What does this fold into?
Amino acid sequence: MLGGIFAILLAFVLFVREQWSYLELSFRIPRVKGIPFIGVITNLKFLKDSLTTLDTFIRKLGDLVFFWVGPFPVVLISNADLAEKVLTSKNCLDKPFTYLAIAKNTGDGLFTLSANKWHEHRKLLNPSFYQKVLKNFIPIFNEGANYIVCQLAEDSTDISHLIFKTSLNIAAETTMGKKMSIEGSTDLLPHYKKALTTISDTTTKPWIYLNSKVIQSNRKIKQFTRNSIKEKQLEMKESELKSNSEVSWKNSIFINQVLDLVQKKKLSESEAEIEALVMVFGAFETTASVLYSALICLAMYQDCQEILFDEITSVVGNEDDITFEHLTEMPYMDMVISEVLRLLPAVPYVGRKVSEDTDFDRFVAPKGLQFLISIYHIHRSEEYWGPSPETFDPENFLPHRVAERHPFAYIPFTKGARNCIGRQYALFSLKIMLAKIIRKYKFSTTWKLSDLQFKMAVTLKLKEMPDLKVIPR
Ligand code: HEM
It folds into this structure.
């Protein structure tokens, strides 16, 4: 009995001490005024348009801002130096509460796992993204690009939809090995889109998971993943029976490697299913939104589009398909994609949670503090990008300019241990699609970059789509 009371008292003292350390910090760095432990949660503008609100915080208070989201203490960072310290700290490998919505939707996989389990999984999954595996996807990326090029000739009214459904199809084939007909993916696309909107809406509408449409979409996606896994397991068994010995799945696609890990009892079947789901989610919307953003930027900056067109035609000529060698010979393409990812980063914010009290020079971060790193604002800061950071200029990525800049001023895939596992996959896919599309079509628009308005979701979303005119070359 006495022991019980003592344990409760101790827990209470520790809780008060922890909360006190957050309060103390909130008075030492610029903070958004609000009631401690409630904070911005009562700010309707924050809930409705968090991107604009965070923008206001940064403009008003600077590159380091403290605020409360309900009981959670959050520090918003828009400074490359601090981003580097956080992203490379061994005490900041956990993800904050905002990622719970992703875990709830896909299950707790690589994106959201806490540090210990994440370490194990990342080590097991890294080989699925080695260059020799990714090279096998080049024909799939080419096929997807061909589909877009053909479809644009028939109907260019909804380019965004065309890109998203093709990207989902590619993600399914490269990770799950399931060759969906492109039309088949049209059936699943609304369900994946629904799931992604649900993730974004969970913070403000936690009851959204009870919605019957959300339940149905989640069920369809999980069913697709489960069926693909079952088919693959059968296929793998058959090839092992045929060869009469164990087959090596070392350089094979993601799902084969993951199921091989299940056979070797390094992953459970449900872990494999979750990781497969996470990969499709991680791959499809990000790459699709960057490809669409690239077309918008090139439509706005005709001179850049022409330089890119000339590079593509001189490197690829009349050859049908883009090869790995072509990808290494298009430096302007690299610069264009980097500049698109700078101004329109597919993932505008990332979060980290502090697992031990940590000294970051400008302040000591107490255990439990949550960081929100604004990739979007670091990428648009005059400090790193000169007096016109909001202008599209691929020359920002000329080698000498990159060498002079802070290494964490450009972090679309983040850096540090918990960076994007699919970075190279995304770059291969983007370069192939963009090369094939720009070779065949010229894009134009009446919109300017400053007309684009964004909203906060898991990925950067446009409030309104610009008019995009497509002319065959
Ligand atoms: C242009 C496209 C992409 C962008 C901009 C992007 C961006 C990012 C960012 C910023 C993170 C870090 C998230 C965080 O720290 O919370 C991340 C993580 C991740 N990305 Fe990507 N990504 C892209 C494409 C892909 C692709 C193609 C895949 C899979 C094939 C993928 C799978 C993942 C996974 C699984 C993680 C979690 C990694 C971990 O915690 O170990 N991403 N991505």
